[in-house]
UniProtKB/TrEMBL annotation:
Keywords: Membrane, Transmembrane, Transmembrane helix. The keyword Zinc-finger does not apply. It comes from Nocardioides panacis. This is Glycerophosphoryl diester phosphodiesterase membrane domain-containing protein. The chain crosses the membrane at residues 33-58, 78-103, 124-148, 168-193, 213-234, 254-283.
Amino acid sequence: MHKPGVVALRPLALGDFFDGAFKTIRLNPRAMVGLAALVTSVFMAVPVLLSLALAALGELSTGGPSSGLGGVGSAAVLVTYLGSFFGLFAAVVLNGMLVQVVAEAVLGRRTTIGAAWAATRGRMWRLVGLMATTFVLALVLFGVPVAVGVGVGLRAGVGPGVLVGVPLLLAGLVLYLFVQVRYFLLAAPALVLERTGVFASLGRAGRLSRGQFWRLFGTMLLAALLVGVVSQVVSVPLGLVGAVGPLLFPGTTGALMLVLSSFVTQVVVGALTAPFTSAVTALQYVDQRIRKEGLDVQLIAASQGTR
């Protein structure tokens, strides 16, 4: 069994994905966790600074620190919503760079943050295009059932609207999950590592995932459950610290703690979970190419050529 890096070069079992993901993080923590923290911090700094600026302007306009809690408290809400928006872009940048790091780790190589950026920066707009395609898909599959249900409800009443809208919404959810796993799950690794375009990567992902839906879906479902548990374990204590701040320090100081705790929570959660999720996805891509294209032979030759 040839194993130059974090996984053996053979078809992977379920445990190999998780074990390989953790080994990749241990092999190259700076390029995995450090990169995730850096990118998340940069993207999250924008909504945080904007929220604090708006809160400060609100305090000046209402006159005095007594109004600071409400202003900065509202800013904390703004951080949450803007953070979700900017988090999408952070995820795009991270996923592209981390896929490159994992690909090198499969061969036992460490990658610097600079090298990962150099290898993927030319693909960023295409990754953004891939994210936009996902957004349009979600908008259609969820927006149309809601619109139909509302339309029926306005014409025939709430009951018929619910009877029509809910089944359509559930059907949209099932179709969305299917398309995500079948075409989008492996698209980003294909786009980055094979230097394809947006639609070419979707077609490539569709070919790789053909006949493998339940294997891919089950692996990502377990990974998502693990990530969800870790996110809650980390975010709940940090969220409590932020919530207690305004009680202990009424006014602007406590409210600032609320805003900053929201920032720290999202950065820490992103730094801990994004590397794992990206690594599992990248390893699934490698696994499918080994199963269908004999990529293991090429990887063995590449690993021996670097020794």
